Amino acid sequence: MMTTNPSGPAGPVGVPVSVSVSVPGSASVAMGTATAGDVLAGYLHGQATDFLRSLRLHAESGADAEDASEAARLLRRSARRVAGVLQVYRPLTDTAWTDQLRTELVWLTGVLGREHAYAARLARLRGALHRLSRAEGEPEGTGSLTVGAARAGALLDRQLSLARTRSHSAALQALGSSRFHALADAVAVLASEVPLDPAARDLLAREALPCLVEQTHRRLTDAVEALPLGVAGRPYNAEALAHGLAATQAADSPPAESRQDAPWHQARRLVRLRRYAQEVLDEHEQGEAEPSLSVRLLGAGQALDRHRDAAEAAASAASAARTPRIAPATAYALGVLHADQRHEVESARYAFGRIWQRVTP
Amino acid sequence: MMTTNPSGPAGPVGVPVSVSVSVPGSASVAMGTATAGDVLAGYLHGQATDFLRSLRLHAESGADAEDASEAARLLRRSARRVAGVLQVYRPLTDTAWTDQLRTELVWLTGVLGREHAYAARLARLRGALHRLSRAEGEPEGTGSLTVGAARAGALLDRQLSLARTRSHSAALQALGSSRFHALADAVAVLASEVPLDPAARDLLAREALPCLVEQTHRRLTDAVEALPLGVAGRPYNAEALAHGLAATQAADSPPAESRQDAPWHQARRLVRLRRYAQEVLDEHEQGEAEPSLSVRLLGAGQALDRHRDAAEAAASAASAARTPRIAPATAYALGVLHADQRHEVESARYAFGRIWQRVTP
């Protein structure tokens, strides 16, 4: 069981600490003199409170699938932020306690996210099939499917709906487990008193926080610099589909496309981490922060989300095409769909490259 | 070919006119005072001579397929130019005679071009299959094909090689026909004395020619302005594949993609016509002409050639996928190939749009 490690605010020698964190979740911190611990605690209080509220919403949603899905989305949203912020600002926390919480939060977001991911992927592939089947002059989103497209859609529907249903059961099971209850208890602790490293109460927020954000930023820029942005910046480079028909080299190795995508997925995770890190700074600095940086990080993250979604959709189309005894027309439609989604991958890389130029001028 | 008059450019009014085209094909025209008839005749003499030389080369090539193919290419090259220039500068010619020649030249280039087109299309599709099957890290142009890609390649090979062989026979038959002999006789007339409208001998080249070129230029700009260049200018607009799986609306109407491509093909023909028109001007004006315009027209034409080639390759992949009793893996590879080539179509439109901005500043 995790325990709190409460430690009172202690200012550095000679400097009076002007802290006014009274009610958790409604921290009001004086600019410039707030401690790193106070700012971090204020942010985490807020997210932990959101987490617990979403959990209540989920419990109350009952049979309403839409409400439950929205509550799960909010739950994941807070969980991702708490885990991310605990990672960026780790040295300021009681790491023995927070490292374990972080592991559990990553587990939870993984379990809860899968159902949503399958539903979104099916929607994306259905949308693409309709777009590809659109007759000339017909408005977008309408149009009847050809036999091949309709069969491909039905096959994907069957496969992804099954995966979605399984993920739904797994999520419900997770939310009823003792593992989840322990996690919820830990988040409740966070909502009342964040276990910090004692030193965090002595460090000025404006000195300690940017330093840790900088470390995350460097990890991100290193990861992005390793990406083939030169190629991605030339439109229609045909790189994302270059391995579209390549054989898997070994049974236990991922297909070439997955290997090609992996560094982009890593950049996506680091952009997200950097965004959460910025949220803590922004709450602290309020008017000081450069709003355009947050906007650009959001844009960069969205481009990489689209990259991930398209890559996974392409993989699902390829995987469906390996179903035994499908009709050639179905396989043909799935091939077109696969290539279409890989071009979405390429398009997302191009979009990311252009946004990134403005993140690091 | 024409050479500049060593006496240099003619001066303004008052300076004696030093012009005369005496020997066909070696016209020596003074700048500024040459007649439209002389300049046009000089260009056509040159192309007609090239045509007859290529015809001799073709006859002498015997069993050497490569020589025969190169001779046929040169024959088409001259035939296209003569037909194009007779169209642009039609009012300067004896139209009763030249209209018929033009019709026959269009027939010949069509018949001779088909064999080359099928060979080029097969090479393009084979290249794409290899590119798509390339394993990660493998250099371009190498790599073994997966089962689906190999079967798709074999199917395309069978279908396009058959079409190529038929076109080859048709071309040989055409070259042996009395229709072709009549055409060759007409070109021989052109090589000795171009049938011009009597008035063409009285018009100044620098006045009459640019006026006719301008008419062609206006047809071209009208055609290009009707193209959806706004959409094409946004990379990854996914427009070229928008109808990739659309059903043909009626059995006798072309598929949606062909209808979408038609105005681009028309622009391609007009860019080519404009280029040939410019060649006549350039030979006449020599140093005066803006070399960058010719270069840009060439670039624009190449982008639209790629557009046509990719569109036809995509159609061949789609058509091959309708072969009865193919394996799903083959159909899948053909679907990927179809989408890949439609993205080449989109890429070519994007490239054309960028070049066109510099053709009409």
TrEMBL record, chains A, B:
<dbReference type="Pfam" id="PF05235">
    <property type="entry name" value="CHAD"/>
</dbReference>
<feature type="domain" description="CHAD">
    <location>
        <begin position="33"/>
        <end position="361"/>
    </location>
</feature>
<protein>
    <submittedName>
        <fullName>CHAD domain-containing protein</fullName>
    </submittedName>
</protein>
<dbReference type="InterPro" id="IPR007899">
    <property type="entry name" value="CHAD_dom"/>
</dbReference>
<dbReference type="InterPro" id="IPR038186">
    <property type="entry name" value="CHAD_dom_sf"/>
</dbReference>
